[in-house]
Design a protein that fits this description.
The chain folds into four domains: about 100 residues, no CATH class; about 90 residues, TATA-Binding Protein (2-Layer Sandwich), CATH 3.30.310; about 100 residues, Tick-borne Encephalitis virus Glycoprotein, domain 1 (Sandwich); about 90 residues, no CATH class. It is elongated and about 130 Å long. By secondary structure, it is α+β, with helices and mostly antiparallel strands. The chain contains nine helices and 21 strands. The protein is about 30% helix and about 35% strand. It starts with 16 loop residues before the first helix and ends in an 8-residue tail after the last helix. The strands form five sheets. It has a five-stranded antiparallel β-sheet with strand order 1-21-20-3-2, covered by helices on one side. A four-stranded antiparallel β-sheet has the order 4-19-10-9, with no helix packed on it.
């Protein structure tokens, strides 16, 4: 069977040397060889990116560290080609752009020719390359209705006043590879959109703090602050552990309030797998960090004939003794071998300072060491933490989903049922002349149609 040509249509030949040059460039740019070369270069770049450290994906790694890892010449060369952020480098982006343009140049001529081909269907097999005539030894007359029933194909008259009846299947199969090309182009465009318009940074907030500034790490090292179109306030942050006193964290949750210009406040509960979306941005519960200024220790203090419970922050004065000595909370510690503790700093009237550990359920009786000093009891300690939110904006996912859908649908069309045509013309003897054509699998198509038409006609299988 004659195979359809896959040559790329090109601008018409011209006697002008300039036009011939344009024609040569067009053929080279829209060739499959260029597409293969671009794919190989993109693959080689991706392999290189797995061996060279990438700054955005390597926390704690900076350009200063990389400069120490390589010689000055190698570092300058790798920096020029953007090897430390390879997938956002100028040359890798250029390769993706050239591949998109190459696929577009390959697809447009085929799109026009396919449109013309799908717009019409030859009413007769004459002149169609690859047509086969099916020889069947008819032993009795056969009608078109019977042929339609046996073949299972929707036979219709090919044209007005035509003697041929025509059935066609898989007509859109040729559009499969075009949809594959279009899907790849859309995916590449989505990747470019994500590279240009995406944002990813962190926002650290202590309970009660409010901000709209997101810290974004730069590929060359350092960071910059970008501002959100709304403000985020941390109402509360809590950490749940597996057991009291256990340092292993089971869960942590942030309660936030988001306010925008001309919009009512919106509250949300952020967990590790429950993000919050607003105006194209997504806020994730990323991690947390210790903040010493937020540490709290609750103490039982002597008060008159009894006692009172008061919560203190590091550096705050707990009480003042009659002789002028001052008691301050220096800090807290959790997870020590003897349990949680608070460190009490005593400042003497002469300026000397001394610190004492105060454990849970173990009062510190300072009167034994320091006359006229009271006993202190530690009731609880609460470490202070700030929530760290991951803020991202990426408009590319819908575009990538569309490209993936086009790619999948194109593959289903391309490798689905082949494009097939069947022509049948009744003869004066009451039999049928059968012609068929298939883009691929012509022998199988011929065998299948022959077996169906021979059934109960020449004594074939029932």
């Amino acid at each position: 069977m004659a195979r359809p040509t896959t040559d790329i249509p090109s601008p018409p030949e011209s006697g002008s040397g300039f036009m011939r040059l344009i024609d040569a460039w067009w053929r080279a740019f829209s060739s499959v060889r260029l597409a293969i070369a671009l794919l190989l270069l993109i693959g080689a770049g991706a392999v290189l990116g797995t061996f060279v450290p990438q700054l955005p994906q390597s926390p704690g790694l900076s350009a200063l560290h990389l400069e120490r890892m390589y010689s000055p010449v190698a570092f300058q060369l790798l920096s020029f080609f953007g090897a430390f952020d390879l997938f956002h480098s100028w040359w890798f982006s250029l390769l993706l752009l050239l591949l998109s343009l190459n696929l577009t140049a390959c697809s447009l001529p085929r799109l026009f020719s396919l449109g013309r081909e799908l717009a019409r269907c030859p009413p007769e097999p004459s002149g169609v390359a690859g047509v086969r005539r099916l020889e069947i030894p008819w032993d009795r007359p056969v009608t078109i209705d019977e042929a339609r029933r046996r073949t299972g194909m929707p036979l219709r008259r090919a044209a007005q006043n035509s003697a041929f009846w025509l059935a066609e299947r898989g007509r859109l199969g040729r559009a499969g590879f075009l949809l594959v090309h279009l899907g790849i182009i859309v995916i590449l465009l989505g990747g470019g959109l994500g590279q240009v318009a995406s944002l990813e940074g962190t926002l650290a907030l202590a309970p009660g703090e409010e901000s709209d500034a997101v810290e974004v790490q730069l590929p060359e090292g350092g960071s910059e602050m970008l501002h959100l179109p709304f403000r985020v306030r941390c109402l509360d942050f809590s950490i749940l552990r597996y057991a009291p006193g256990d340092m292993a964290v089971r869960h942590y949750v942030s309660e936030i309030e988001v306010t925008g210009v001309g919009q009512p406040p919106q509250r949300a509960r952020l967990e590790v797998n429950r993000p919050f979306a607003r105006e194209g941005y997504r806020l994730f519960q990323s991690s947390y960090q210790a903040v010493r200024a937020l540490d709290r220790a609750t103490l039982r203090l002597p008060h008159g004939d009894g006692s009172r419970e008061v919560s203190f922050a590091p550096g705050e004065e707990i009480l003042r003794a009659p002789d002028g000595g001052r008691y301050r909370l220096h800090g807290i510690e959790t997870g020590t071998p003897h349990g949680d503790l608070a460190r009490i700093e005593v400042e003497y009237p002469d300026g000397r300072r001394q610190r004492y550990p105060l454990f849970l359920r173990h009062p510190l009786d300072l009167s034994v060491l320091l006359p006229a000093r009271p006993a202190l009891s530690l009731l609880s300690v609460r470490p202070g933490y700030a929530t760290v939110l991951s803020v991202s904006r990426d408009p590319s996912p819908p575009v990538l989903w569309l490209g993936s859908a086009l790619l999948l649908f194109g593959l289903l069309l391309a490798f689905g049922p082949a494009h097939r045509r069947l022509w049948i013309r009744p003869t004066p003897q009451g039999t049928l002349e059968v012609f068929l054509w298939a883009r691929r699998g012509a022998e199988e198509f011929e065998r299948d149609v022959g077996e169906r038409l021979r059934t109960r006609t020449t004594g074939g299988p029932r």
